[in-house]
Design goal:
Largest sheet: 3 strands, antiparallel
Shape: globular
Structural class: mainly beta
Order of helices and strands: HEEE
Oligomer: single chain
Number of domains: 1
Number of strands: 3
Mean pLDDT: 80
Strand content: 15-25%
Distance between the termini: 30 Å
Low-confidence stretches: 80-84
Helix content: under 10%
Radius of gyration: 14 Å
CATH class: Mainly Beta
């Protein structure tokens, strides 16, 4: 049987949380203010499905191009060398 090519296929270790870092997401994660021009690393939490991007973008660095109230629009810059 061939392996599937679904949205979250082959992400067992990619979206997993590190040892002793599991649990609810802290409120400060959502209250962080990003300004236009800031460089950000795109990281996904596997426990949060809403707004989850494709695995291709995990670990990429981008620059904030537009920052409406509940959304960040990034321009991708490069691929990180080390992934966690």
């Amino acid at each position: 049987m061939l392996a599937g090519h679904e949205l979250r296929s082959r992400t067992r270790d990619l979206f997993a949380r590190p040892f002793r870092k599991k649990g609810p997401t802290h409120l400060t994660t959502y209250l962080h203010i990003f300004k236009i021009g800031d460089y950000v690393d795109v990281k996904v939490k596997g426990s949060i499905y809403k707004g989850m991007h494709h695995k291709f973008y995990h670990g990429r660095t981008g620059r904030v191009w537009n920052a409406p109230s509940a959304l960040l629009v990034l321009r991708s810059i490069s691929r990180l060398v080390t992934e966690s």
